[in-house]
Amino acid sequence: MLGFVPPLPQQPGRPQPGRPPSTGHMIVCGDDALARRLAVELRFVYGERVTLLLPPGRDANSPETPLTQRGRAAALFGRMSAAMNRTAANGSGGTGGSDTNAGVEAVRIMEAPEPSDDVLEEAGVDRAAALALVYDDDERNIRAALTARRLNPRLRLVIRLYNRKLGQHLEELLDQAAAVAMPGIDPALLDASTTVLSDADTAAPALAATALTGSSKIIQAEGLLLRAAERPPPRPGETMDPGLCTLALLSSTTNDPAGSEGSEGSGAEGPQLLPDEQTVAAAEGRGTVVLEAISRADPDRPATRMGGRGAPLAQVFSRRLRWSALGVAVAAVALVIASVLTTGDSAIHSTYLTLLDLLGMNDPSEDAPAARQIIQLLSGVAGLLLLPLLIAAVLEAFGTLRTAASLRRPPRGLSGHVVLLGLGKIGTRVLVRLRELDIPVVVVEEDPEARGIPLARSMHVPTVLGDVTQEGVLEAAKIRRAHALLALTSIDTTNLEATLYARSVKPDLRVALRLYDDEFATAVYRTLRTAHPQALTRSRSVSHLAAPSFAVAMMGRQILGAVPVERKVMLFAALEVAGHPQLEGRTVEQAFQASSWRVLAIDATPPADRNPDLAAVPPYPPQGPPTPSGLVWDLHPGYVLRAQDRVVIAATRRGLAELLRRQRTVAPRQ
Questions:
Q1: Is residue 114 in some structural domain?
Q2: Among 461, 485, 515, where does a domain finish?
Q3: 570 or 367: which carries more pLDDT confidence?
Q4: Which of 25, 98, 196, 492 sits 20 to 30 Å CA-CA off 279?
């Protein structure tokens, strides 16, 4: 099912006699697909020597897979090696014709239940350049990070944490420990010594974007939002608007129902990242991804609630109770009018007497005219009807207050919403992202104790508890009137089954499903496109989206975001020009390398005043206009890049690896 499994590399426990110990290598520790993909990224894209530490046994997230963690990793490495050999045989083996993996040993695979002191020492943590801790358990990653920092204070750490606040505190603690162990360390090196990332935060914007009409992707840099948007091919006689710049050309099979999303092995028919002007002009019938707009980000904008802060009257009291209350009110008004007409009393005094009669607070009208006595009797009867009505209202109000702390049901008239399947780590982050964009959402989750259930409750998001594969669950989520379906559970077969059923109910439904295996995802995508050519279908892998960001962090660089272009990934990064001969001393136009990298902006802020984290929203002043950004986006093609400049670039995975690899050649690690 997974293809040929090649022989595993040798596993030397200790350095062999006569063989120098491995130094400057990279260690990846994890227990799921992200660890394996990260090792592939470092080995086959950046050409690094990698030691992969996996737990023994099968993958807990895929118990149905017959291969162990070690076997799945070996199979993945085998497929990547075969793909690299095919690429090299076709004469397209990397930028500049250089072999990224020349002279690099195969990935060393180790198995251990925990990254203990002895295991990390055996992996060579004291001689390693970087360590990635990408276990699914935050506590295990923290414990291993503290151990690794003690064993090697100079080690660059990349840690996977879901808890954002805890990650910030941990990053400060580990950087402080490195500063104490290495007095006088360069602040720039210290800033890159510890990086805390979340695969959920990295993948959520791309997953949420698939639910939007127009397929926009958002990248944040120093409080500014870069929006990359897909545009269909122009019609005959129309001129394509390039926006600020063209980031990619979509596959030539995008409009072909039998076509598939392009990947790294699609060749010339697949998507082309960062094309030059001649390629864009010559491309006919192909859509584009353009840098469309730049706007300022709101500071700490909270995710909005659905339905407002207060519960509307229709949710507190039932329709039957509201109609009954209206009937009693009409009867009271009729009694007031009858009292005014028969007794000649004023409207105010008649209303007062009628209310007293309704509530049983008035004295009997023994000496009053007969009309007044009859009205008093009728008012008493209406008062008897009012008593059970008040009791019912109190009971319903208490019931509503009791269920207000529980999950909200999808309202009857809801339409045009997004149905989100799964509230794990990924689904929770995507839910927050969708609500920040004010997109109505209905959540379907099987586990009532799932991670995102409290968030859905606090945001008043309609939630359906149940197995999505069971009949009636998707109907309860109003799938027939939904705009899109995001199937983000951790089980591929569940996502596929829910997608197929949703398409049978609504053939034109927009669908994005989370799938791990690329070959399986391609087959599913092509089948769905053939069966439903009029509907948009996307398949996404969280580990595929997150692995490039983790890999670049291990190289000591900052990633602003990753944008999926079909099944390829484009990276946005911040780089110092110094040490990059492809950039330093060249104009912006000369620095552009088609299919590799493009300079988008320059940070004009003096080096001493620069924000070290461009991805963070800068603090806004309490009063007055916000501080202007130091990033200059409207670049003149003739501007010469200087060593002190910091630039924002869009790059392919191999293009960014080429920049970082050549920098290592210019300035080798001490």
A1: yes
A2: 515
A3: 570
A4: 98
226 domain residue, yes or no: yes
Same domain, 428 and 497: yes
What is the chain's percent helix, strand, coil content, to nearest 5?
40, 20, 40
Residues 46, 177: one domain?
Answer: yes
d(CA 107, CA 45): 13
Q: How many residues does the chain have?
A: 670
Choose between 477 and 63: higher pLDDT: 477
**Tell me, what's the pLDDT at 442?**
95
Q: Are 507 and 560 in the same domain? A: no
Are 203 and 538 a contacting pair, CB within 8 Å?
no
In a domain, 577, yes or no: yes
- Same domain for 49 and 193, yes or no, is yes
Q: How deeply is 179 buried, as exposed, middle or buried, from its count of CB atoms within 10 A (0-12, 13-18, 19+)?
A: middle
Work out the average pLDDT over 551-579.
Answer: 82
Instruction: Give the 3-state secondary structure of residue 649.
Output: strand
643 token code pair: 């060593």
| Cβ pair 489, 426 in contact under 8 A | no
> What pLDDT band is residue 366 in, cutting at 50, 70 and 90?
low
Please state the pTM of the whole predicted model: 0.71
Instruction: Determine how many CB atoms are found less than 10 A away from the CB of residue 140.
Output: 16
Report how far residue 662's alpha carbon sits from residue 657's, in angstroms, rounded to the nearest whole number: 8
> Regarding beta strands 156-160 and 194-197, do their DSSP bridges make them parallel or antiparallel, or are they unpaired?
parallel
For the record, the structure tokens of 156 come out as 């660059």
Largest CA distance in the chain: 123
pLDDT tens digits along 571-617: 888 888 988 899 999 999 999 999 999 998 888 888 777 776 666 55
Q: Is there a domain that residue 330 lies in?
A: yes
Verify that 213 and 189 share a domain, yes or no: no
Domain boundary among 515, 541, 565: 515
Evaluate if residue 61 carries a pLDDT over 60.
Answer: no
CATH number of 493's domain = 3.40.50.720
Residue 372's domain comprises: 324-388
pLDDT tens by residue, 309-341: 444 555 556 677 677 778 778 887 887 888 788
Question: 503 and 379 share a domain?
Answer: no
Q: Can you name the residues that pair with 225 across neighbouring β-strands?
A: 220, 295
Cα 275 to its chain centre, rounded Å, is 27
Two tokens, residue 234: 């122009």
More confident residue, 350 or 466: 466
The contacts of residue 321 (CB under 8 Å, 6+ apart) are 389, 392, 393, 396
Q: Strand, helix or coil at 468?
A: coil
